[in-house]
């Protein structure tokens, strides 16, 4: 164990003791402007500053800059803990995951790291193995990881073909209840957009989603009647008062232009809800003029975008001829953000045929995204892409910022700068929920061995 890990354990114990008294101050935490505010943040406000964070009965009572330290911070009756300049961020918000697929990798040896291969082998596994117990146990396993790492809200897609929808949605609803107060859960249905041609299928799914307080979603790609199918999705969402969430353009084919079509449909229909689109990989393969025209429409619609770097790096440009991938697969976040488009980053698939790796750790996603997309020099306010922005996209007021009156849902890293935070695993980060450090450990993989086909041989 490193000296800094020992230090971190001692700090956690101090905070836990102080939390027992209901009121304490964490002194000298390093905050950045973007984690404090709602709304857009000017470049000048992105720097770190040292602050004292006062916590009372699980909520943030006040935040004061060390430069204007109040006499209250030295009140001898207040439990005061010196964080010695560690970086603090709000708990993470993960707005695009596939909990229902997570952990199935050992059952899918035919997966070959391609998108088409993943679709095929997942379909076989779903049909053969996705009972209620199988889906619940795998989802719960992944949620325990996410909670451990400091995530407080998640949206998951749920494969909603018949009869799977009737199995997975009730399992999700039960888990959502079980996890209430720890992780706020949302779900979006998922099926290939061709299936929307069947009116009965669409209206059954929309009703199920509406009853469950979920989001209407589909995987959209350029079939000949795509505009008509998108119109149907938007009309149905309007009718049921639902938000929309699409997978789109998860391909290197520059002809894939569904992001633009989604924005056009939104504008055409004056859609009143929120629209989120994931992936949008093909944008990076298109001519600048095409990109500009698309992104102008996306900004006007407005449509939010979530980038999934872990999955895109894994699936895109996969070659089976012994050659190396030549492009990154990720979408154009800089260009989007410049136009004021809401952009988030999320975990996506974890240990399934769409991505062999991952453990729902949003720090890992933040780190990989920073490197793959050059979201540094400066780091600016990109931390919002895993906190405030996905919270806004998901309509969650009490997540994603560190602000007076908010629940004290915080992560205290060992690192004192973005470079320090992003250079190590930060496996000893202190996750504070409602003012109290959690002690939940990661679930152990052998737990999964008791599920059909998941035992390692
Ligand atoms: O990336 C993707 C696309 C479709 N389905 C998934 O689970 N992941």
Automatic annotation (TrEMBL):
Gene3D superfamilies assigned: Metal-dependent hydrolases, Urease, subunit C, domain 1
An annotated GO BP: cytosine catabolic process
Organism: Phyllobacterium zundukense
Leader sequence segment: none
Protein name (database record): Cytosine deaminase
A molecular-function term among this protein's GO annotations: cytosine deaminase activity
Pfam families: Amidohydro_3
InterPro entries: Amidohydro_3, Metal-dep_hydrolase_composite, Metal_Hydrolase, Metallo-hydrolase_Enzymes
Domain Amidohydrolase: 227-435
Source taxon at top rank: Bacteria
């Amino acid at each position: 164990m490193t000296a800094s890990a020992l230090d971190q354990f001692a700090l956690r114990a101090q905070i836990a003791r102080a939390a027992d008294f209901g009121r304490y101050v964490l002194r000298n935490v390093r905050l950045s402007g973007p984690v404090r505010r709602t709304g857009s943040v000017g470049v000048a406000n992105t720097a770190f500053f040292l602050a004292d964070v006062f916590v009372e009965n699980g909520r943030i009572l006040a935040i004061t800059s060390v430069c204007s330290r109040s006499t209250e911070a030295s009140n001898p009756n207040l439990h005061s803990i010196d964080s010695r300049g560690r970086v603090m961020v709000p708990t993470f918000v993960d707005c695009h995951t596939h909990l229902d697929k997570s952990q199935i990798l050992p059952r899918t040896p035919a997966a070959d790291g391609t998108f088409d291969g993943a679709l095929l082998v997942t379909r076989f596994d779903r049909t053969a193995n996705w009972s209620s117990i199988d889906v619940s146990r795998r989802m719960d396993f992944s949620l325990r990881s996410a909670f451990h790492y400091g995530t407080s809200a998640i949206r998951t897609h749920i494969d909603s073909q018949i009869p799977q929808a009737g199995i997975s949605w009730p399992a999700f609803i039960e888990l959502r209840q079980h996890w209430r107060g720890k992780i706020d859960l949302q779900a979006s249905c998922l099926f290939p957009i061709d299936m929307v041609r069947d009116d009965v299928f669409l209206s059954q799914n929309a009703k199920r989603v509406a009853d469950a307080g979920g989001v209407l979603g589909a995987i959209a790609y350029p079939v000949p009647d795509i505009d008509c199918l998108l119109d149907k999705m938007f009309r149905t969402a309007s009718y049921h008062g639902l938000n929309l969430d699409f997978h789109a353009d998860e391909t290197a084919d520059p002809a894939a232009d569904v992001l633009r079509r989604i924005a056009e449909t939104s504008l055409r229909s004056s859609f009143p809800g929120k629209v989120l689109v994931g992936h949008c990989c093909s944008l990076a393969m298109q001519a600048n003029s095409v990109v500009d025209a698309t992104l102008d429409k996306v900004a006007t619609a407005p449509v939010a975008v979530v980038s999934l770097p872990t999955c895109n790096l894994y699936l895109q440009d996969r070659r089976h001829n012994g050659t190396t991938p030549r492009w990154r697969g990720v979408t154009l976040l800089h260009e989007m953000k410049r136009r004021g488009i809401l952009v988030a980053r999320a975990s996506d698939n974890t240990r399934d045929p769409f991505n062999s790796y991952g453990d729902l750790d949003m720090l890992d996603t933040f780190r990989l995204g920073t490197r793959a997309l050059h979201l540094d020099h400066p780091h600016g306010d990109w931390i919002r892409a895993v906190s405030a922005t996905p919270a806004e996209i998901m309509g969650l007021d009490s997540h994603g910022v560190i602000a007076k009156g908010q629940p004290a849902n915080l992560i205290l890293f060992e690192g004192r700068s973005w470079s320090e935070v992003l250079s190590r695993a930060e496996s000893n980060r202190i996750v504070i929920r409602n003012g109290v450090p959690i002690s939940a450990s990661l679930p152990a993989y052998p737990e999964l061995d008791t599920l059909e086909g998941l035992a390692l041989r």
